[in-house]
User: What shape does this take?
Amino acid sequence: MSAKFSSDPSEFLPVGHHRVALGVAYNGRHYHGWQRQPHGHISVQEKLEDALTKVADQPIKVMCAGRTDSGVHASAQVVHFDTSANRPLRAWTHGGNMNLPDDIAIQWAHPVSVDFHARFSATARRYRYVIYNHPMRPALMDKEVSWNYRPLNVEAMQQAANHLVGKHDFSSFRAAACQANTPVRTIHHLEVIKAGDYIVLDVRANAFLHHMIRNLAGLLMKVGAGDAPSDWALEVLAAKDRRASAATAPPYGLYFVNAEYDNKFGLPEQMMGPHFLSPWMNL
Assistant: This one.
């Protein structure tokens, strides 16, 4: 017999197995995104599954809260896996990290009930897009922040961002390869925050389309540079056509920083990154 969990009726938890959730951070610059890739392209999922398989001494497959693209980072990705291997939580964290490369780290492990699913149980997701706004390119955080050499008007960017908050058809902000069943998403907040030479786009939504945040960032930077008025965001939204918007922003400044779940699951809390920014960013 198998126990069905309510989040996804197509999956079952075999008898004798239990479910574990993990918090994972990674620098995505050397990986072809989160998801396992064909043809030898290295992914974060592959490295994590290989490390956990060594700890469990059996094949481990993980599910994540939100798949990230090539070059995108995460400070608080959430995953879960099922296993019949009985290991203390410390084994999953410390043992897993011993088998992981330095740019991927398990932050915590927590036992969860069968009705928890890293993807389907998430009620909201949050990303941050970090822009280094300076005439000269960054060196110390190369491929960890985006770079825009033109002075950006944060106030104009925020005015444009305000037009995008709420439930909308975001067809103008989805990639051609997006496989989502609907382009309708709800953005709960989209804040533009300046911290010295950095500008941080903090966006929280129920879910995101493929390349949605990078396309939002491209529009906001175009407005910030003075190439379009703030109200242009409304025109782009109404067009429901990707060709009506700005170019897709680079992946390097994008961080997956939080997935939200019902308190009943008791997942550990942690400070949202990127961690090189001040604690006030934990909004």
